[in-house]
UniProtKB/TrEMBL annotation:
<feature type="transmembrane region" description="Helical">
    <location>
        <begin position="123"/>
        <end position="142"/>
    </location>
</feature>
<feature type="transmembrane region" description="Helical">
    <location>
        <begin position="213"/>
        <end position="236"/>
    </location>
</feature>
<keyword id="KW-1003">Cell membrane</keyword>
<comment type="function">
    <text>The central subunit of the protein translocation channel SecYEG. Consists of two halves formed by TMs 1-5 and 6-10. These two domains form a lateral gate at the front which open onto the bilayer between TMs 2 and 7, and are clamped together by SecE at the back. The channel is closed by both a pore ring composed of hydrophobic SecY resides and a short helix (helix 2A) on the extracellular side of the membrane which forms a plug. The plug probably moves laterally to allow the channel to open. The ring and the pore may move independently.</text>
</comment>
<keyword id="KW-0813">Transport</keyword>
<dbReference type="GO" id="GO:0006605">
    <property type="term" value="P:protein targeting"/>
</dbReference>
<dbReference type="InterPro" id="IPR030659">
    <property type="entry name" value="SecY_CS"/>
</dbReference>
<dbReference type="InterPro" id="IPR002208">
    <property type="entry name" value="SecY/SEC61-alpha"/>
</dbReference>
<dbReference type="Pfam" id="PF00344">
    <property type="entry name" value="SecY"/>
</dbReference>
<keyword id="KW-1133">Transmembrane helix</keyword>
<comment type="subunit">
    <text>Component of the Sec protein translocase complex. Heterotrimer consisting of SecY, SecE and SecG subunits. The heterotrimers can form oligomers, although 1 heterotrimer is thought to be able to translocate proteins. Interacts with the ribosome. Interacts with SecDF, and other proteins may be involved. Interacts with SecA.</text>
</comment>
<feature type="transmembrane region" description="Helical">
    <location>
        <begin position="81"/>
        <end position="102"/>
    </location>
</feature>
<keyword id="KW-0653">Protein transport</keyword>
<feature type="transmembrane region" description="Helical">
    <location>
        <begin position="186"/>
        <end position="207"/>
    </location>
</feature>
<protein>
    <recommendedName>
        <fullName>Protein translocase subunit SecY</fullName>
    </recommendedName>
</protein>
<feature type="transmembrane region" description="Helical">
    <location>
        <begin position="27"/>
        <end position="48"/>
    </location>
</feature>
<feature type="transmembrane region" description="Helical">
    <location>
        <begin position="402"/>
        <end position="419"/>
    </location>
</feature>
Length: 448
């Protein structure tokens, strides 16, 4: 059943967009900031040989570097100033979020309000800087080991670490500016822009294959239908909620007893978001990445080399074992991450302190048990949905042999960020519409 706010939003007058001067300024600022991000992805790090780098990229295809390259918008394969993208901050944010749910001191900070959140954000930034230094050293060491570094001295290591750290911190600042002065979540928009930037290459390759006959017309139509169906499914499931009715006792006022208040506790079907497929794919791609990075230093006749080669053979994209382990990993991380970010006992305790209760359920432990029961059931649906969205493209790639970079994780990020940004634009237009209604009401009051 639609709420009153949903009904108002459905009657939103898009003609107010022409009057929304501040909204248009925010949108133009966001577009300008994303253009700056794209420019930076083409500025190379000092001391990189482009010919040797291109040869390395062809060898490293299919490894975990492809996943990082997707999120950086191709900056990693070009070894630009923002080669590691915004991923160090995302990783640090996930670690701090999980630690705040497990560590008592950080959990107390999380409950501390605005000051506690500010402290946790500070820890996240410190962690991002530390990860940037580590990843910057890894980028420099990999460049030297793979032979696409012109200079192999300590100066190259120092300049790479400084440039990579500075590039990521600039992206973080740019994302914060988009959030405060633009529209949407800045960090999410930067990740989405990096993914969307590769769409033209994929579309050109797909239709070029159809023109030359390498890809049949039926396969191309099937790809388009699959992508549209997955987008619709993601848009529906990401907004799907299980609303639990919360009832508050009657309150006494000067005019007498008021009616008991009712509200809803929304539980998302997909509480874990895009974390499960990222974790699962990263773990499965580790053996192939290790082989490509250190394979030359391992004796080809040793048992370790044969084990790595066997693992790589069975864990290639599209292999039945890879898809099976991928699905199991997504399901596991769905339940694990949901258990970390949502605490039924804490939620039940907060409801009890505020006088709220679920009708027919006793406050306290019974409420916590009921919340855990409902959350487990909807997480099963969310895990099945995530598994379908992420494994279906892998299966299609395996059956058709067409390289499809647009995986389920990329689609999840793009659709989620797009829906969130559109919702914020809708909120700005709704606020403008409310402002016009208030002005008209005041004008009518004066005329009387």
């Amino acid at each position: 059943m639609a709420s009153r706010a949903d009904n108002i939003a459905s009657n939103l007058n898009l003609g107010n967009f022409a009057k929304a001067t501040e909204l248009k300024q925010r949108i133009w600022f966001t577009i300008g900031a994303l253009i700056v991000f794209r420019f930076l992805s083409f500025v190379p790090l000092p001391g990189i040989d482009p010919v040797a780098l291109a040869a390395f990229n062809s060898r490293a295809s299919g490894t975990i570097l492809d996943l990082f390259n997707t999120f950086s918008g191709g900056a990693l394969e070009r070894m630009s100033l923002i080669a590691v993208g915004i991923m160090p901050y995302i990783t640090a944010s996930i670690v701090v979020q999980m630690a705040s749910a497990l560590h008592p001191t950080l959990a107390a900070l999380k409950k501390d309000g605005a000051s506690g959140r500010q402290k946790l954000n500070q820890y996240t930034r410190y962690g991002a800087v530390l990860l940037c230094i580590v990843q910057g050293y890894a980028v420099a060491h990999n460049a030297v080991a793979q032979g696409f570094a012109v200079d192999t001295s300590w100066l190259f290591y120092a300049s790479t670490i400084i440039n990579v750290t500075g590039g990521t911190m600039f992206l973080l600042w740019l994302g914060e500016q988009i959030t405060s002065r633009g529209i949407g979540n800045g960090v999410s928009l930067i990740i989405m822009a990096g993914i969307v930037a590769q769409f033209p290459n994929f579309i050109v390759a797909l239709f070029e294959g159809g023109r030359t006959g390498a890809i049949s017309s039926i396969v191309i139509i099937g790809f388009i239908v699959m992508v549209i169906a997955l987008i619709l499914l993601i848009a529906f499931m990401e907004r799907a909620q299980r609303r639990l009715t919360i009832q508050y006792p009657k309150r006494a006022t000067q005019r007498g007893m008021m009616q008991a208040e009712r509200s809803y506790l929304p539980l998302k079907i997909n509480t874990a978001g895009v974390i499960p497929p990222i974790f699962a794919s990263s773990l499965l791609l580790l053996p192939l990445t290790i082989t490509n990075l250190v394979g030359s230093s391992i004796d080809s006749g040793s048992s370790a080399y044969s084990v790595l080669q066997t693992m790589n053979q069975y864990l290639q994209h599209g292999q039945p074992l890879y898809m099976t382990l991928y699905a199991i990993g997504i399901i596991f991380f769905c339940f694990f991450y949901t258990a970390v970010v949502f605490n039924p006992e804490e939620t039940a305790d907060n409801l009890k302190k505020n006088g709220g209760s679920i009708p027919g359920i006793r406050p306290g432990k019974r409420t916590a048990d009921y919340l855990e029961y409902v959350l487990t059931r909807i997480t099963v649906i969310g895990a099945a949905y995530l598994t379908l969205v992420c494994v279906l493209p892998e299966y299609v790639i395996a059956q058709t042999g067409v390289p499809l970079f647009l995986g389920g994780t990329s689609l999840l990020i793009v659709v989620n960020v797009t829906v969130d940004t559109i919702s914020q634009i809708q909120s700005h237009l709704l606020a403008l519409q409310y402002g016009d209604l208030i002005k008209k009401a005041k004008l009518k009051g004066r005329m009387r």
